[in-house]
Design a protein that fits this description.
The chain has a single domain (about 1-125), classed as Globin-like, CATH 1.10.490.10. Helices cover about 75% and strands about 0% of the residues. It is mainly α. The structure holds protoporphyrin IX containing FE. Protoporphyrin IX containing FE binds near residues 38, 54 and 85.
Length: about 130
């Protein structure tokens, strides 16, 4: 099941590397350098960590029950627009997360796991106008 593949994939990355937040945000800031300034107040990384945890929860919801994920993404697009994050940049966070997980996963990135993640990204791209 897609949700199981996704959650197992997240667990393996955590086992191999611990918290992936540093790698995710390093990749984000290399692709979107102007976004780094928005986190200057986040000295301890708490906001970055909470945001990533929310993103994982949303992804697990989209791969499973689909009870709130799409609504949350749509609401956060508006909130982030007010923070200075354009919609297209907001949506680019999801592929950034998946690319980072792929890199950290090594051999654990099987074709099944890759297809599960690709499905979530396709869903997001088709369901949420950037
Ligand atoms: C490149 C894309 C993104 C940027 C630059 C960005 C930026 C930020 C910033 C600067 C904050 C901290 C706001 C503050 O503390 O005042 C934040 C918080 C948050 N972001 Fe994002 N965001 C992005 C994408 C996303 C996505 C895709 C989601 C999807 C759910 C999301 C969900 C959240 C949530 C839930 C919080 C509040 C976290 C908390 O509890 O502190 N963000 N974001």
């Amino acid at each position: 099941m897609t949700q199981d593949l996704i959650s197992e994939s997240l667990e393996r990355v955590a086992e191999r590397h611990g918290d992936p937040a540093k790698a995710v945000y390093a990749r984000l800031f290399s692709q979107q350098p102007e976004m780094e300034a928005l986190f200057v107040g986040d000295k301890d990384g708490l906001s970055r960590g909470n945001m990533l945890a929310n993103v994982f929860e949303v992804i697990l919801d989209l791969a499973g029950p689909r009870s709130y994920g799409l609504n949350m993404v749509r609401a956060e697009i508006t909130n982030h627009d007010q923070l200075g994050v354009p919609g297209a940049v907001f949506m680019s966070f999801f592929p950034v997360v998946v690319e980072t997980l792929k890199e950290l996963s090594g051999d654990d990135w099987t074709p099944e796991v890759a297809a599960a993640w690709a499905g979530v990204l396709d869903d997001l791209a088709s369901l949420v106008p950037a």
